[in-house]
Specification:
The structure is a single chain. With 477 residues, the protein is an all-alpha fold. Helices cover 73% and strands 1% of the residues. It contains 20 helices and two strands. A hairpin with a 4-residue loop joins strand 1 and strand 2. Helix 13 runs parallel beside helix 19 and helix 17 crosses helix 20. The chain is globular, with a radius of gyration of 21 Å. The two termini are 27 Å apart.
Length: 477
């Protein structure tokens, strides 16, 4: 068919190849699940997923430095999309290794496929060049998560899935209505068409509603209320996956929209509320975390604050700001997944609820685990020599340099509050208690140690050598 051949050239297919490999790997995992005995299904599903993700990561690395507008500008290949996609691929691989998949042996192939399809949706969002691609990627990401949140046998899992479904659908409604108004303002679904759009009420309203939908996926205050309940109810691996991958996809869309899509004369007025919401997230996330007794809820509120720091780096739309935002996202990925992996190692059941009280006296029972958890918490608090410290210093520099010193002040205040949040766990770990009163469960999953070790090494290396790739400016054409 000549028409199809002219639309989908080899270069177009190559641009989407990593996301396609991840999506097709899910089908391969489901196929092999039909052929093997139940005893080997879990490890086989993980092996198939790992091979597909590693292959996709290699292709992404080869694509770095190349720029191409695929499918008429619907998907934009470049350093920006490649780096975000690499973060998504690495996060997905570490999450699956952390808990050896999700659900029972007869569920693990299906749950692995859902995780891979959600990851491919997030990868699609990283290169979205028009509004339709944004929505397609977002829904592909979300649909799998609705099912994954409910896969646990706990009653709270069904509740979390229902909350996420209802509230996420409402956020998608805001997003779609905003897209419709943006289409009315520009006459096109292409993000590049917005740049030349004259300031109008349609543009302001459309951008506002669009940003509300993105803020929901990022868990920015005041669109964050679903996050702790959903994180608590979902299986641990799903919670860890959501905490990073959904943020990576949504941040890629937000960065492209803020940097490359808005008319210069309207950008400041449209984006000021985003910076205010980022400041509120830094404060509310850390203050709410003070009273949490469940680790998943605590890390949920921590994630709200952390994404506030990342969004703050976008303020002023400076070239260095997007680099530091990506750097801190990578640092947060390893710090957060490392902390989740420690939680996974503290329970025989990867789906179990682990309260903060379980960390009491951990340094005397399992000193290596306590030391690594302390290291990850130091990073999340933003203390040296971790990547969290380096990232916050860089974000502080770019916000002040861009003329948003008040955002830098809020970042410092939020960091000061977070120190108490994380150090109450550190203090508990190094306080000797009667071990008869502590339930000391241990996971039999050795691969979780791989996740912990890799994350710890990455947090240390990025802290000492802040690698922030330069070829990452978002484009729309």
């Amino acid at each position: 068919m000549p028409g199809l051949a002219s639309f989908a050239t080899p270069a177009d297919v190559n641009a989407l190849l990593p996301a396609a490999i991840v999506a097709l790997t899910a089908l391969v995992a489901l196929f092999f699940d039909l052929l093997v005995p139940a005893a080997t299904r879990r490890m086989l599903a993980l092996a198939v997923a790992a091979i597909g993700l590693i292959y996709a990561g290699i292709i992404l690395a080869e694509q770095y430095g190349h720029t191409y507008a695929a499918f008429g500008g619907s998907f934009l290949l470049g350093g920006y999309s490649v780096v975000f996609s690499e973060i998504i691929v690495i996060s997905t691989l570490l999450t699956l290794a952390m808990c050896l998949g999700v659900g029972r042996d007869d569920q693990v192939a299906g749950s692995t496929a859902l995780i891979l399809w959600s990851a491919s949706g997030a990868m699609l969002m990283t290169g979205a060049g028009n509004l339709m691609t944004v929505f397609l990627g977002l829904e592909l990401l979300s649909l799998g998560l609705y099912c994954l949140c409910a896969i646990s046998v706990r009653a709270t899992a069904r509740e979390s899935a229902l909350k996420y479904l209802i509230l996420s659908s409402m956020a998608s409604g805001f997003l779609l209505f905003g897209m419709a108004l943006l289409f009315g303002a520009s006459g096109s679904v292409a993000l590049s068409a917005l740049v030349a759009t004259k300031p109008s009420l349609l543009l302001l309203l459309g951008s506002g509603l669009f940003l509300v939908g993105i803020a929901f996926k990022l868990s920015l205050v005041p669109f964050h209320v679903w996050t702790p309940d959903v994180y608590e109810g979902a299986p641990l691996a799903v919670t860890a996956f959501m905490s990073v991958v959904t943020k990576a996809g949504a941040l890629a869309v937000l960065g492209r929209f803020a940097y490359a899509s808005l008319p210069p004369e309207s950008a400041t007025a449209i984006l000021i509320p985003v910076w205010v919401v980022a400041a509120l997230s830094m404060l509310v996330g850390n203050l709410a975390a003070l009273s949490q007794t469940d680790m998943k809820r605590l890390l949920a509120y921590s994630g709200i604050a952390q994404v506030g720091y990342i969004v703050a780096a976008f303020a002023g739309q400076t070239a260095i700001g997007v680099r530091y935002a990506i750097f801190y996202l990578a640092a947060y990925t390893f710090m957060n997944l490392g902390a989740f992996a420690v939680v996974a190692l503290m329970s025989r059941d990867a789906d179990a609820v682990v309260g903060v009280g379980r960390f009491a006296g951990l340094a005397y029972r399992r000193p290596w685990l306590a030391a690594l958890m302390t290291f990850f918490l130091l990073g999340l608090a933003g203390l040296p020599p971790t990547a969290g410290f380096t990232g916050k210093v860089l974000i502080l520099a770019t916000t002040v340099g861009a003329g948003y010193a008040w955002l830098g002040g809020v970042l410092i205040l939020g960091t000061a509050i977070s120190i108490y949040v994380y150090f109450k766990i550190v203090r508990a770990m190094f306080t000797r208690i009667d071990e008869a009163h502590v339930r000391d469960e241990r996971s039999g999953n050795r691969l979780a140690w791989f996740t912990v070790a890799l994350c710890a090494g990455a947090v240390l290396v990025l802290g000492l050598y802040p690698l922030a790739p330069s070829n990452v400016l978002p484009l729309v054409r």
